[in-house]
Write a structure and sequence with these properties.
heterodimer; A: alpha/beta; Ubiquitin-like (UB roll); binds flavin mononucleotide; binds iron/sulfur cluster
Chain lengths: 411, 76
């Protein structure tokens, strides 16, 4: 299920950062000048979509920045990875810093950017150390243009406008749009905010071509991808797959399930719960998932053991999401908090009358009503929970739980 | 061409004035923040919509021209 060239080919990620010599021996030098010029059409032809969550076409984004840049754009490589269930960006940055850097340098050349900011989540210390070392290894020109910026921890600091605002003002909170970063971002300049995996993939497309990218997926899906698997599997963590691989094949690659599971969370905290049989049959193809109302997101596949209450697991996630609100928008601040409190009451065996009905109404009202898409993600997750754990939720509304006494803490 | 109402959710602080002036298109949620009916502003409500936009104390509302075909399209 692996393509001939992948993001994590070469030395095992656990061995730490790959140095420049090994990187170039394996993949060849970075294409420069005229070769890099054709990269935007090549990316468009590849079908590569962003891996930070929203899945926006990469080539089209580069083009919109290039059209406005006048040579003064900024590239903001997004390695904030605030998603608790995702580890793929920190793993990639720590193990393949030169590939990420290649992508950022190519992007800078293609869109016409002088400065490159590598925005790395505060907790990802191995990743920032590895990128800093890689920049030093490249020497003069790269050291002058590129630098690591440590992103404050928190779920929303990785949102594109929050990242831009952090570089501008030192505050990692989303701003109103328009203007969007590609119009007016860091220092008021057109800014390409691109996830680090998207950049690393762009560096592979530049070397091996758009046809390579398409063939690296399993038709009709295109491309390889990093995913993070968690729950009772033998080898949880980051795995590289060909998009289009099924969840059950991924589970097999992760050593199989070690316990009965009842559901899986696909796409992370912005994603959706699915009953386990449905989840296992899914093909990890962003377009096919979207057609089913599921987002590939940042590639999270998290299994919920049968022994853990789905209401409790959902309450934990939603209370985290509510606490992570940047508290700038009423619907996100009050709506998410109310949903989290009601879900917490249900999970803890102290339901108020109508909690379930209200959760359902509030979640339906949230999408599109925040300055950023934070509430949309949380509301989507909540709606999927109400569907998948429908029976458990109604039991909890009556103060019961099929996992014994209602319990606040999920495993 | 038609107009759609846009709300700057970061600015809006739930004064609720807009819902008073344009109840046909704007309701308030349980905390007093606007819930907007989807789609373009119908012809006969244009003037009311303009008044609501002008009345918002924190300038959180605006009308945006949209081509009929891409109404309500939200970008990621
Ligand atoms: C609340 C929130 C948090 C986000 N966090 C991240 C993040 O940690 N890393 C990331 O790459 N994108 C994150 N995004 C998505 C970014 O806004 C942006 O779409 C992305 O970095 C663009 O890169 P891509 O097109 O390569 O995916 C987040 C979005 C939202 C709404
Ligand atoms: S929607 Fe929530 S997270 Fe996004 S800007 Fe508003 S308050 Fe912040
Ligand atoms: S009048 Fe303005 S601040 Fe008040 S609810 Fe409407 S949009 Fe928000």
């Amino acid at each position: 299920m692996r393509s001939p060239v992948g993001l994590l080919d070469g030395p095992p990620p656990a061995a730490g950062a790959e140095g420049l010599a090994s990187h170039e021996a394996r993949l060849g030098r970075l294409p420069v000048g005229s070769e890099a010029q054709g990269l935007i059409p090549m990316l468009e032809a590849s079908g590569l979509q962003g891996r930070g969550g929203a899945g926006f076409p990469v080539g089209r984004k580069w083009r919109s920045v290039a059209e406005r840049s006048g040579g003064r754009a900024v590239v903001l490589a997004n390695g904030a990875e605030g998603e608790l269930l995702s580890m793929k960006d920190r793993t990639l940055m720590a193990a393949r810093p030169h590939l990420v850097l290649d992508g950022a340098l190519l992007a800078a050349e293609a869109v016409g950017a002088e400065r490159i900011a590598l925005y790395v989540g505060q907790e990802h210390t191995a990743a920032s150390a590895s990128l800093r070392r890689a920049i030093t290894e490249r020497g003069g020109e790269v050291m002058r243009r590129a630098g690591v910026v440590v992103a404050p921890s928190g779920y929303v600091s990785g949102e594109a406008t929050a990242a831009v605002r952090y570089l501008n003002k030192g505050v990692a909170l989303p701003t109103s749009t328009p203007p969007r970063p590609f119009e007016q971002g860091v220092g008021g300049r057109p800014t390409l905010v691109q996830n680090v995996e998207s950049l690393a993939l762009s560096a592979l497309v530049a070397r091996f071509g758009d046809a390579w990218y398409r063939e690296a997926g399993r038709r009709p899906a295109a491309g390889p991808a990093l995913v993070t698997v968690s729950g009772p599997v033998a080898r949880p963590g980051v795995h590289e797959i060909a998009l289009g691989t099924t969840v059950s094949e991924l589970v097999a690659a992760a050593g199989g399930l070690q316990a009965h599971v009842q559901a899986a969370l696909i796409g992370g905290y912005f994603g959706a719960w699915l009953p386990s049989e449905q989840a296992l049959a899914l093909s990890l193809d962003p377009a096919a998932l979207r057609a089913r109302g599921v987002a590939f997101g940042c590639g999270v596949v998290a299994f919920l053991p049968a022994a853990v209450c789905g209401v409790a697991a959902t309450a934990d996630i939603i209370s985290y999401m509510a606490a992570a609100s940047a508290r700038q928008c009423g619907p996100c601040l009050f709506g998410l908090r109310a949903i989290a409190e009601a879900t917490g009451r249900l999970a803890g065996g102290t339901p108020a009358p109508e909690d379930l009905v209200r959760i359902s109404r509030w979640s339906a009202q949230l999408p599109g009503r925040g300055g950023c898409r934070h509430p949309d993600g949380a509301a989507g997750l909540m709606r999927s929970a109400l569907e998948v754990f429908a029976e458990e939720f109604s039991l909890h509304q009556r103060g019961a739980c099929q996992h014994g006494a209602p319990q606040r803490k999920a495993a | 061409m038609a107009d759609e109402i846009r709300i700057d959710r970061i600015r809006c602080d739930g004064h609720g004035l807009c819902a008073e002036l344009l109840p046909e298109l704007i309701e308030l949620d349980d905390w007093g923040y606007p819930l907007l009916a989807p789609g373009p502003v119908p012809e006969h409500l244009r003037e009311h919509a303009r008044q609501a936009v002008a009345a918002c104390p924190v300038v959180a509302l605006r009308l945006e021209r949209v081509a009929a075909a891409i109404q309500s399209g939200r970008r990621a």
